[in-house]
Design goal:
- This protein is α/β, with parallel strands linked by helices.
- The protein has helices spanning about 55-70, 80-95, 95-110, 110-130, 170-180, 195-205, 220-230, 245-255, 280-290, 310-325, 345-360, 390-395, 410-415, 435-440, and strands spanning about 5-10, 15-20, 20-25, 25-30, 35-40, 45-50, 140, 145-155, 160, 185-190, 215-220, 235-240, 260-265, 270-275, 305-310, 365, 380-385, 400-405, 425-430, 445-450, 470, 485-490.
- The strands form six sheets. A seven-stranded mixed β-sheet has the order 16-17-18-15-14-19-20, with helices on both faces.
- Helix 1 (about 55-70) runs parallel beside helix 7 (about 220-230), helix 2 packs antiparallel against helix 4 (about 110-130) and helix 4 (about 110-130) runs parallel beside helix 5.
- It comes from Bombardia bombarda.
- Belongs to the aldehyde dehydrogenase family.
- It catalyses: an aldehyde + NAD(+) + H2O = a carboxylate + NADH + 2 H(+).
Length: about 500
């Protein structure tokens, strides 16, 4: 068997062929330096396999392939044909949903039910942008009787895209959908912790018939391949989802190179606000989902929970009971809700924050310890008696750790909710429509949910204020991240003046 594929097995799929090479020009290839790195199963702490590592030299090759496709074969493809390619790709994802979900669970540790949900969202996202491909329009603008003016929305060119490990396939879809629909070509780097599902996806790209070089998917380290993409003079735009500190580094590299366009979807520390008149049972269900979904490894997680004093005690007791019911364990077990954290580094980071919370004087109501003795599992954790100046209330933990505090007045909780450097998401739980609208409008966040949480859709724009990033993913708004406007002015025949 070629060293570009390895045989793996999951309880869902049985044996399957896992690509391990770099996907460049519609082929899996070795890295120039023939370097590889290990992929660790977070459930067992064992090596799944090794994949080829992209270096700066490989990024050069992938960018050259993308540039050749952009200036050649892809430029000749009509918007209608781009639509057909994308819809075909969505259909292939649908056909292979079990394989894609199983590899996602194996590699990332998320429960198989959540992984299937992710793949369904991938299918919807790619199909949605397939529908947009032939609907990107310009305008005619009437300025003078002897002139004809029109605008065009043109693709940017070669787009570098760097995705995170918490939603490997979903973030891939969010990135490639609008970029391909608008006629760009792509070099996409997966997260080094979770490269496997992206490589499976690459096989479907080729099967869908995309011309070589249009979508290149490489595995590599952020500090090497990610840095090379960010600073590459042949990349016209970089899109990144991940931490705010890394986002700053990417923005500096983009500015210092060719001043490439940048969109960043970064961290969050989102407030989840529960008023006295909320339906407590429903609010607890959504608050639980808001923080513990995807093991707490969600940029928009509702990690800061503010509960009005009239129901605080009742809410806290019920929330503790609900959180303790979350099934933590093997992601391939049908009852599992929370799998392991993605890596030993992430596990240690979260446990350090739990230790800090205890040292700062917060009360650990439940959890705060390792779950089991194998794998990177952490018990669902709730801290009470948390003040807004504590690290666990201000810094993004990115794990199954909730911080809960009491408030009295609406104005007070708005100030508390906005007391953060982030601004990605927020939620309001109340039966009063006036309160819902008033507070939603006052919160500085890119998304506000009312009486729900974590309900994202490919039709709705998603992104943050302040240090949560710039630009918007999803919806029609994402198309603007991948197009540039050109004005054309045609002077009709006649006298010069």
């Amino acid at each position: 068997m070629s060293n570009l594929f390895v045989e793996l097995k999951t309880p869902i799929t049985g044996s399957f062929q896992q690509p391990t090479g770099l996907f460049i020009n519609n082929e899996f290839v070795e890295g120039i330096d023939k370097q590889t790195f290990e992929v660790i199963n977070p459930t067992t702490e064992e090596v799944i396999c090794s994949v080829h590592e992209a270096t700066e030299k490989d990024v050069d090759i992938a960018v050259a392939a993308a540039r050749k496709a952009f200036e050649g074969s892809w430029r000749q493809v009509t918007p209608q044909q781009r639509s057909i390619y994308l819809i075909k790709l969505a259909e292939l994802c649908e056909k292979n949903i079990d394989l894609l979900a199983a590899v996602e669970s194996l590699d990332n540790g998320k429960s198989i039910s959540l992984a299937r949900g992710d793949v369904n969202s991938v299918i919807g996202c790619i199909r949605y942008y397939g529908g947009w491909a032939d609907k990107v329009e310009g305008k005619t603008i009437d300025i003078a009787p002897d002139m004809f003016h029109y605008t065009r929305s043109e693709p940017l060119g070669v787009c570098g895209q760097i995705i995170p490990w918490n939603f490997p396939l979903l973030m891939l879809a969010w990135k490639i959908g609008p970029a391909l629909a608008t006629g760009n070509t792509i070099v996409l780097k997966t997260a080094e912790q979770t490269p496997l599902s992206g490589l499976i996806f690459a096989t479907l790209v080729k099967e869908a018939g995309f011309p070589p070089g249009v979508l290149n998917i490489i595995s590599g380290l952020g500090r090497v391949a990610g840095a090379a993409i960010s600073s590459h003079m042949g990349v016209d735009k970089v899109a990144f989802t991940g931490s705010t500190p890394v986002g700053r580094t990417i923005m500096k590299a983009a500015a210092a190179s060719n001043l490439k366009k940048v969109t960043l979807e970064l961290g969050g520390k989102s407030p989840n606000i529960v008023f006295n008149d909320a339906d407590i049972e429903q609010a607890i269900s959504w608050v639980n989902f808001g923080i513990y979904y995807n093991h707490g490894q969600t940029c928009c997680a509702g990690s800061r929970i503010y509960v009005q004093d009239g129901i605080y005690d009742k809410f806290l007791e019920a929330f503790k009971k609900r959180a303790a019911e979350n099934k933590v364990g093997d992601p391939f077990h049908h009852e599992t809700f929370q799998g392991p954290q993605v890596s030993k580094i992430q596990y240690d980071r979260i446990m350090d924050y739990i230790k800090i919370g205890k040292e700062e004087g917060a009360t650990c109501e439940i959890g705060g310890e390792r779950h089991g003795d194998k794998g990177y599992f952490i018990q669902p954790t709730i801290f009470s008696n948390v003040t807004n100046d504590m690290k666990i209330m201000q810094e993004e933990i990115f794990g199954p750790v909730a911080a809960i505090a009491k408030f009295t007045h609406e104005e007070e909780v708005i100030a508390l909710g906005n007391d953060t450097n982030y601004g990605l998401a927020a939620a309001v739980h109340t039966k009063d429509l006036n309160t819902a609208i008033r507070v939603s409008n006052a919160l500085r966040a890119g998304t506000v949910w009312v009486n729900c949480y974590n309900l994202l859709h490919h039709s709705l724009p998603f992104g943050g204020y302040s240090e949560s990033g710039m630009g918007r993913e999803l919806g029609e708004a994402a198309l603007a991240n991948y197009t540039q406007n050109k004005s054309v002015a045609i002077r009709l025949s006649g006298p010069l003046f």
